Amino acid sequence: MYDKTVRRRRAVLALLVVLSLLLLTAYFGESSGGGLHGVQRTFLTIVSPIQDGANKALKPVRDVFGWFGETIHAKGQRDELRKQIDKLRPELAAAQAEQRTYRQLIGLYHLNRLGVSDYHPVAATVVGKSPNIWYSTVTIDKGSPDGVRVNDPVINSEGLVGKVVAVEPDGAQVDLITDSTMGVSARIGTGSATGIVQPKVGDPNDLLLQYLPANTQATKGEYVVTSGTVAGPDDSLYPPGLLIGQVTSVNEESAYTSVNVHPIANLHNLDVVEVLTSHSGGTAARASSLAAALPAGQTGERTANGEQLASTGSGG
Amino acid sequence: MTGTPSPGLIARVAALSVVVVFFQIGVVSEVPVFGVNADLTPLLVAFVGLLCGSLVGSVTGFAVGLLVDLALLQTLGLTSLVFTLIGYWAGRLRELRDPQAALTPLLVGAAAAAVALVGYSLMEFLLGVDAPVSLDLLRQIVLGTFVDTIVALPMWAIVRRVLDGALPEDPRRRRRRRAYTTGGLSPLTKA
User: Alpha-carbon distance A213 to A258, whole Å?
Assistant: First the structure.
């Protein structure tokens, strides 16, 4: 009985293996139009509708499993992307810093070509900023050996930034135009009347152009530039035509007109500035060039404005 | 089980095989896990062999392999050959050792999956498929075995549940169960 069972088991196994090998050989040897291929195609024709039905019926199950799989896959991707972000973030920050510096240097280069170079500008890097929220002072890396002196105007590619208030051999401190002690002689781009630009009380990020004659015409969006006159008895002379800001509103008062001015220079992101170390460059031609560098939107007034500024500049 | 299988058992095995093959083709093959797809068919063959013996195991392996080859337009006889050997081996394991450990299905499932994947790859190479033995292939085999091992226990539970009522009583297992419940002594000895 046992032998019979063993023999039958082995015979079945041998039969199945031989059958498999025969099928394999025959299938592998015949062409695609052969009998076994035909059987396979017939089987597929019969089974296809069932398979389609089963596929449709089992789609929800597949979707559920797929959802789990895709979620796991998505989590893996998320972790991978987070790693990439962590890796790229410092590179992006460095690239942005470089780009910002580059833009400022390009702006200064253009400004120099327009006449500022006659004021012997000394390029400096901002190495320290006032830690309080007012951002009214910054420290630069150029000092007395570079020709920097107290009251020298400081500009960047956008316009007037402030003036030097203290000089050391290895650096200097600059008061920004938003500092409460600052006062800059300025004019509205299209007019001839001059006033004093000072920080607005209670809002250090905003400026106020005060002491304009009562009949001064000013409209919102006009540019405010340095007039080139002295701001005080001992102050330095700012070159005429340096951009300070844009008029945001006009306040009519009894004896004077004052306008609110939003600084053009982004004083929160100063990286590269220029210190104008010579005060004797304010000629009419240079003032005219600087005035011509006013941003677009004031094209119609540029020539006349430049001339007016030039005359004031030579007087300052 | 070494005798002739009952018609009920044959019917259950056949129905289970058809359902599993279609479920494999329709669902499991569409859901990648860790970049590979689980394959329930070698698990089915191995578990049928483990429950029913080498004869039923090898025949089921041949039939399931043929069904897979027909349905997927693969080389006829290739999967049949591999699955026949898996079913026979699992059946012989039961007939010779009859392992009762709880992890037996897990190990048998893992071994069946590995044999199926390696055997299928070997056969393809023997038939002249122009593919390099790359790390990617090894990764697929390892991951495929791992995924099949994960689904081995649920698959075992399903196969056992479906076939349980049709499995004939095995004299050896009956003896073992009696020894376990009576402390190794027959009621006569005890008396």
Answer: 9
